[in-house]
Amino acid sequence: MFRILILSFFLILSPQAHFMNVLEQAYHNKGEDYSPRTKHINKQGRAKFVNHLILESSPYLLQHAHNPVFWYGFSDEAFIEAKKVNKPIFISIGYATCHWCHVMEEESFDDLEVADFLNQNFISIKVDREIRPDVDATYMGVSQLINGSGGWPLNAVILPNGKAFFAGTYFPKSQLLEILSKITTLWKNEKNKIINQANEIERILNNTNHKTKSSIDKNIITKTIQALIADFDELEGGFGQAPKFPHESILLLLIDEQKRHPNKPQLNAITITLDAMASGGLYDIVGGGFHRYATDNSWLVPHFEKMLYNQAQLSLVYTRAYELTKNPLYQRIAEQTLDYVLTEMKNPDGGFFSATDADSQGEEGTFFVWSVEEIKNILNKDEFERFNHWFDLSVHTDFEGKHIIRFKHIESINQADYPKIDKLLTKLYKARIKRDAPLTDHKILLSWNALMVPSLLEAGAAFNQPKYTQAGLKLANYLQSFNKNEQLYRVSINNKLQTLALFEDYIYLANAYLSVFDHSAQKIWLDKTLQLLETMNKKFWDKENFGFNIGSDNKYINNSRKEIYDGALPSPNGLAYQVLVKLNNRTTDKHLQTQKEQLENAFASQINQAPDNYSSFILGLNDATFGELSSVQYAYNGRIRIHTELANQQININLNLQPLWHINANQPLQSSLIATKITNPDPKNWTFEKIIYPPAELVQLGFSKEKISVYKNQATIKLNLTQRSDTYQPPNLSLTLQACSDKVCLPPITKILKP
């Protein structure tokens, strides 16, 4: 009681910008249903402490609003106060569904001894990394420089000007107090050493960010694939050792390369990894969707939080893997993942929530694991025997005395088994939803939602499922609401926009709009993409060194930092490169080619040194060098749209030509003209049968005295295929054509189509 009174007295008398009565009023305004997250509750059920975070809307920050630590948000107020009282700043960064963030909160930040020490010696700032990835990236760079690694919670100690001199991740209470005590002593006795260290860290990081411009190695694609295959775990799938992350950017690159240049090692890396992830553990077999990462090599034991960005990227991976292999398992996983998002992560007002927690009832994974007795009580005897036939209930799936649901041998399950399996899983799902569910982080992030748009649209087309197509188009329209008063915002909480958008938001949204343009052929979406690019160039483009900066308007962090590395999210600059390649194929703007080359050269030295870290860039380089592989392609800078549809080994090649342009018919009247024709570059795997070209139109054009035979406006070429190989390979089609207007004929080209 004595300690509580001292701490409360300190908080009340501390010269904070917000007096305690303001914070208490904010607490009161939360209403009777509000439940403070703290162990410090008085007899009336009220929290004993309240800090600046009560004024925030972030679910993560509100989790800490009643810690005895007197937290600030990342604000001018905190930095001004630190300078005023001459104290270092302790900054702690995490997110609402982070398990180890919860552990550190309970052990340290809700602890009176730790809080007392922080309040006396530091100004303390809490940051939601999902709202402020620019702040997170700044201090994550410090942690990686000092420790060689990073993670969350991320904890740093910084000067009142924002420069960091210490950073690390999770610390137990005793270690945290020891570190803070040493820092306090240094601050009092050897402050210059701390300032010098902070300046040196900033100098090193700034030098790292500004690489010398060079050219991409001409063999970089081959070197990248070789490096990825060398890192592949042939036994368990995935890349590297535990903890294992899905590495979606790597998988998307390998799928793309397998379509272009099929070989067994690539295919094994794809299928072994996807089968292992789908077997259960990382994948939630009962409810659908993926957890964030696995703690073990075999993908069994995850950290149980589910992030929207994983669902977006992995549903896209499995959709494209299905198109590559026609394996029905991959369609099943893609659809179940999207159905999970549409059912359990959807905000009724539009968009999708950011994440669900790993913890429930105070324990990690409780919601997701099962005892054998529970399963026996839900299923009858025959059902349990069938369940035990398909699923592993041995000690190998044990998690703290219960079991993680996992297939025994997923590769041996037939498509005909799925309805029987689903009947059993539905019973478990209905029982599970009666449990106390993990917390849902209800904030809606622009960038993460933008990732969902192409995933939904591609799944709708690949699986002929209009519900995914409609959901993708609806989401794209909803995301336009993040633009208000000519400002783009990053976050929506309770239908209120906050936090100006970062480069990540702009480029993910541009990529989403471009996918809608490809799907719909409505030029308005191309125009929206180009408008976003124009704004990005004004706000984020580095005119001297090239590349896009992470942010543009924060005085406490390095705004010139550029995100290029593929981590849990695709590299924003890598995705920008892909978007520039696509825009160059869809428009006649010559500046796009120049900027694409500048972006490529800006990061060439980094990519050449470790190409396997930059899969998003390499995927864009594949498109730039060899052409795109999507079902929608463009010829002659967007003058011709080519949409290839495959259904039951019948292909329709739909050609849409801009006004005033035509292509020569399959049988031109003049021998000097190049015919439009389809040829088969892969007779080993496919036979083309019954190619039907559309009727031609005879026209008189200015450059010819004779009438010529052409296709104008819209034309469809139809053909049937017969598969010759035992294993499925996506068919190749070679389309040769020549575009002409009334005044000029452009050089003939050949496009490789891989529906």
Low-pLDDT runs: 1-18
Helix content: 40-55%
Shape: globular
What structural category characterises the helix and strand content?
A: alpha+beta
Q: How many domains would you count in the coordinates?
A: 4
Overall average pLDDT:
93
**Named CATH architecture of the largest domain:** Alpha/alpha barrel
Strand content: 15-25%
Q: What would the CATH topology of the largest domain be?
A: Glycosyltransferase
Strand order of the largest sheet: 1-3-2-4-5
Task: Give a quick account of the main beta sheet: strands, pairing sense, barrel closure.
Answer: 5 strands, mixed
**Overall CATH class of the largest domain:** Mainly Alpha
Number of helices: 25
| Cα Rg | 29 Å
Q: What is the end-to-end distance?
A: 71 Å
> How many strands?
30
Structure notes:
The protein is of the alpha+beta class and 755 residues long. The chain folds into four domains: 2-209, Glutaredoxin (3-Layer(aba) Sandwich), CATH 3.40.30.10; 220-367 and 441-626, Alpha/alpha barrel (Glycosyltransferase), CATH 1.50.10.10; 372-434, no CATH class; 632-753, Immunoglobulin-like. It is 43% helix and 16% strand. The chain is built from 25 helices and 30 strands. The strands form nine sheets. Strands 1-3-2-4-5 form a five-stranded mixed beta sheet, sandwiched between helices. A hairpin with a 2-residue loop joins strand 10 (359-360) and strand 11 (363-364). The longest helix is centred in the N-terminal third of the chain and has 19 residues, at 191-209. The protein is globular. It starts with a helix and ends with a strand.
